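Journal club prep — side note

Before the paper discussion, L.F. wants everyone to see what a predicted structure for a comparable chain looks like in token form. Sequence:
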Amino acid sequence: MKILLVGAGLSGAVIGRKLAEAGHECRIIDARDHIGGNCYTRRDPETDVMMHVYGPHIFHTDDEEVWTYVNGFTEFMPFQNRVKSTTQGAVYSLPVNLLTINQFFGKTMRPDEARDFIAEQADLTIEDPQNFEEQAMRFVGRDLYEAFFKGYTEKQWGCSPTALPASILKRLPVRFNYDDNYFFHRFQGMPKDGYTPMIQAILDHPGITVELNTTYSPDMAADVDHVFWSGPLDGYFGYELGRLGYRTLDFERFTHQGDYQGCAVMNYGDRDVPYTRITEHKHFSPWESHEGSVCYREYSRECGPEDIPYYPIRLVEEKALLEDYIAKAEATPGVTFVGRLGTYRYLDMDVTIREALDTADVFLSGVTSGTAIPAFVKSPR
């Protein structure tokens, strides 16, 4: 069969590879001038530092099959994300852990003492947290909330934490030991040569053709048997019902001779600091040595029509519009919506790959059995 995949990021590459291996003819197009989507990496010409051009991407997963899959296309090096936060005139370790708690409150508590202490700080009158702020107040109390979560969240999402769902904070752990590894997952690492060569290797199959600087037009669908769309869900329909809400990022690049901040990621929790964090990219490849350094200050703002969408907002207004687009998608034959943009969900890389592999399996099974291929293998709801 002839397959068109719109987008040469992880979703398009992984689905295309599996379908090509099954004997199908896969054409992958991308409007950008490079493969890899937002995972795109390249060497900085000035410093030779490996740059995460659209912001840092750290691979972490508990899915052993996905870990084996990516390691089949590139060599991964050990990497643990150890984030720091500058707030209220001091530097602390994130996620909030026993060191953070002891340093912040000027104490030397053991784990059980710290657990009891934080329980005393918590606002236990909030029995059923209804928003982000209530969730934070319920679990860590006002002081830690205002230092590490409130200002950062206001900058990241552009609204009051009271307008955000409580579920967002459930992804931010508090630890009563000195473990400052940001992720819990068994498998963590970075591709030795960056993500671009990994994705290039996935695309390296005689059944796959890749066309860059190529924008999708509806007439392309007439020449193929099926389309996999990893662009914005609303974009497929020309935004005819309105635009789904996203946050985008602006990056302010600057260089430094030597080591600028001593870590890969430094958050800035104070509201009066306009950026959310500074990333120093050579620390994402600690096995390399570079005299020069490249850093990004990250600024979050509302995503406009010409901006790159990063984070789906998914508040009440967006969810209502999302339902309308889901209905349109499910009524459109011959196209399957995949990935972060196609399903309007925030996805880590490992989940993106898992869903791409599963989507390819569903497609191949449907071809064999003669059953219809769904618009969504993983529901956006």
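L.F.'s comment for the group: The chain has a mean pLDDT of 96. Keep this in mind when we get to the figures.
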